[in-house]
Amino acid sequence: MIRVDNLHRHFGGFRAVDGASLEIATGSITGLVGPNGAGKSTLFNCIAGALPPTSGTVTMDGEDITGLAPHELFHKGLLRTFQIAHEFSSMTCRENLMMVPGAQSGETLWNAWFRRSAIRDQEAELLKKANEVLDFLTISHLKDERAGNLSGGQKKLLELGRTMMVDAKIVFLDEVGAGVNRTLLNTIGDAIRRLNEERGYTFCVIEHDMDFIGKLCDPVIVMAEGKVLSTGTIDEIKADERVIEAYLGTGLKNKETA
């Protein structure tokens, strides 16, 4: 579904992404891991349109999407979440979900004056869908709670729910486990797996929790110093000498045997 070829993103003389190439297969849950500063989030930003790449290409289903703006990618079914949730804090959880679909009838003055019934019908449909999403994520008890009052993990679930309000094809999740307790992280993992298996979502997940990645993702891509270092199953990358060196600063072959 997604192919990245020789992608670069430079900030002056600093090469945050330095010739990264990778593929994300349709229907997969692909993990993206690496030490801090490896370029993972910058790569996400380039793919999702938040940053233009310095050079290189990104294609989605064979179409060149390099440098497209986030709202253009949104309409193509490419969505992303962030390390820090971006909720509308003064609105309820349900209202946050209902805000997501674009081109709503009530957004035009003409419809507000002359097509009020169409607005009511669409709002009823959005309300129904929002309730279904909240039920799916097992947070329906929070439907009338202001989003700003949620815990970190609940906000991550709400962000995932927002991707369900439109016809998402691929979702990039940036550190869904950051600041989330183990119980909620398991709930998020279950929701991701169900969306993948039941609704055909493709995911790419940045996460530092290797147990979470190992249970959820196949394949796993490892980045270091802006480059793709290794790709494989969780067991393969854990045994890869280059990955061990990137994380620990030395390979097993350099360790003295006790």
From TrEMBL:
It comes from Roseivivax halodurans JCM 10272. InterPro entries: AAA+_ATPase, ABC_AA/LPS_Transport, ABC_transporter-like_ATP-bd, ABC_transporter-like_CS, BCA_ABC_TP_C, P-loop_NTPase. The keyword Cell wall biogenesis/degradation does not apply. This is Branched-chain amino acid ABC transporter ATPase. One of its GO terms (cellular component) is plasma membrane. It comes from the Bacteria. PANTHER family: CONSERVED COMPONENT OF ABC TRANSPORTER FOR NATURAL AMINO ACIDS, CONSERVED COMPONENT OF ABC TRANSPORTER FOR NATURAL AMINO ACIDS-RELATED. Keywords: ATP-binding, Nucleotide-binding, Transport. The keyword Endoplasmic reticulum does not apply. Residues 2-250 form the ABC transporter domain. The lineage of its organism: Bacteria, Pseudomonadati, Pseudomonadota, Alphaproteobacteria, Rhodobacterales. One of its GO terms (molecular function) is ATP binding.
